[in-house]
Amino acid sequence: MSFAYKIKGYNWDAVKSAILAKTADDVRRALYTDIRTYNDLLALLSPAAEPFIEDMAQQAHRTTLRRFGKIIQMYAPLYVSNKCVNSCLYCGFNRTNKIDRKTLTEKEVMQEAETIYNLGFRHILLVSGEAPKDVPVSYFCRIAQSLNNLFSSISIEIYPMDTEEYKSLIQSGVDGLTVYQETYNRTTYQQVHPAGKKSDYKWRLMTPDRGGTAGFRRLNIGTLLGLSDWRVEGAFTGLHAIYLMRQYWQSLVSISFPRLRPATGGYEPEYPVNDSALAQLICAFRLLLPDAGLVISTREPEQLRNNLMPLGITQMSAGSRTSPGGYSLEAHADNQFEISDIRSPEDVARMITSSGYEPVWKDWDKAFLEG
Prior knowledge:
41% of the residues lie in helices and 12% in strands. The chain is α/β, with parallel strands linked by helices.
């Protein structure tokens, strides 16, 4: 059974009503039970849980220490192309935006990668717009084969592919797949994705299934916070994560919490998510999924990232550039969005250390998979 089939049993409005109906007693039960369920997640996401956020934060902190210790994995994104065939209303790469566009040559990718490597990173995330003619699967396979000499982990956040294409990427050295559904609300999804391949809701929804079937070691999902009601998005993301963990038990599942940032096109989020709501969301996921990786990026401001880290975060980006060539090339192109935390990787690592945690630039070696 795929997730596309499973989600048919969950109506957006009914899930929202169930969340809003939760009481303080429901929240207490969710907080103090030993094994939490999807129903407990609804309670932890509810307005009734807001007076309990401090309790949630303390439990989330203790749970993270037991499962992960004081470890924060560092990673950096490498944008290889800002060309795109889609018309996502919120994205700077929208095909109708008049921006400077560029696809890096394989030589330029390696120059960017070496700059990132010299900053200390050993985990890298390849990012592009959806432009299969400019950045086909074969392009990413060749890049991954070259990057294997520098990085212990290579993940992708590019356009959805079929299972056989994912298998070819895995064989070339890619071990992680990041794909955000953006929103699980079908009506909103169609409104903000009016054209292009990305307008196919089901094709995107099935992407983690295809990645799990292909055998990615890491599967990272999330929604773009601000497109729709964050509580309901959280409920559907939790449903999806539970499904993936059961269906693809050999893959490590993680959750990202990207909030919309200013970008070319001037899209204004209809459902802005404040800092308190973001903290509640992160705590709820840590309590529901004690073993899941939780990711916070440079979309968030410096002080907030510092404060969110102890609640359950296990992975952080640093020093990010969101344009092709942004790290080392003089003539780089326009970015996807503005980052908020502009600290250098060294400064972020120093903050992590001063907080009593350990920044980890490499947490495993590919040789483990080859043994």
